[in-house]
Fold this sequence. Notes:
- This protein is α+β, with helices and mostly antiparallel strands.
- It has seven helices and twelve strands.
- It has a single domain (3-289), classed as Endonuclease/exonuclease/phosphatase (Deoxyribonuclease I, Chain A), CATH 3.60.10.
Amino acid sequence: MSNIKIISWNVNGIRSNIITNGKAPARGNILIDHDSNFAQMIKTYEPDIVCLQETRCGEDIFERIVDTLGEKETNYFNYKCINPSKRKERGRGAGYSGTALFSKIRPIRVMYGLDTLDEPNIEGRCITSEYEDFYLINVYTPNSGTNEEYRLNVWDPAIMKHLNQLKATGKKVILTGDMNVCHKELDVFSGLPKENVRIAGLLPEERQAFQNYIDNNFIDTYRHLHPTENTYTWWNPRIKAFRPQNKGWRIDYTLLGSKYDDPRTMITKAESLTDVFGSDHCPIITEFNF
C-alpha cells in the first residue's frame, strides 16, 4: 500500500508572480525567486507530484526554475514532463495553454496529448503518466466561451473515452486539473444562472459532461470529503474583492476511478489551498492511500 500526494494548479502563466512574487525583472529576463509562491507551496505541502496547467512557456523556463530551487525542492523535479503549447497567444510570444508535470516518482511511461482526439497535440492541454498503481491525467480543459462546439462535441467525449480506456486496464485512474466547469450550484458563489442565461463554465451541457464522469464511477474527491462546503478554486481577476470575499467558482478538480475497487476508500485528503497566491486559481491537493 502506498500514500500519494498530488497538487494541481492552474498557474495562469508560470512566468507570472507564482515564481517571481510580483517582482519586475529586467526586460527580456525572468526573475525567479527562491521564496516565491511556487517554492513555498512545495516546501509547505511536500507533494509527490505537481501538475500545472496554463503554463504558457517552453521547456527552457522549467530548467531555469529547477536551477534556482534548493536541494530538497529539486527532488520534486527529478522527472519533468513538459507539454508546451505550439500555438502562441495573439499579440504575444507566449503560448496561451500548456501543461507540465513534476514528479518524485519515475513514471513508467508518459503520453502527451490525447490519442482519442483526431488532431495533433498543438495546445499542450493534456499529459498522461503511468505509474505502478495508477494512471494520472493532467488536463487543461478548453473554455467553452472560446469554442463551445469543440468543447462539448469533441473534447469532452475524447476525455471520457480516454478515461474509460485507461480504467479498463485495471489500474486506478486519476484525472486532475482545470476542468473549466462548475458541476453543482454549490460550486459557484452566486448559484447557477437562469436556464435562458448561457455562461461559459455554467452551461447545462458542460455540467452534464462532468456528471458523465460521476455516472462512470469516477469520484469527485473534494466533494466526497466535503459534501456541503463552498470552497472555491478560481476568482474573477477583474474584481479584486472577490477572492477576499470568497466569491469564486470551483472549476479545478481531482477525480478518481477504479475498475475493481471502491475508489472512496482510497481518498484520504482533498483540499483547496486558498492560502497559496500568485494566480487567479488556487492549487488543490489530494492524498490517496492505494
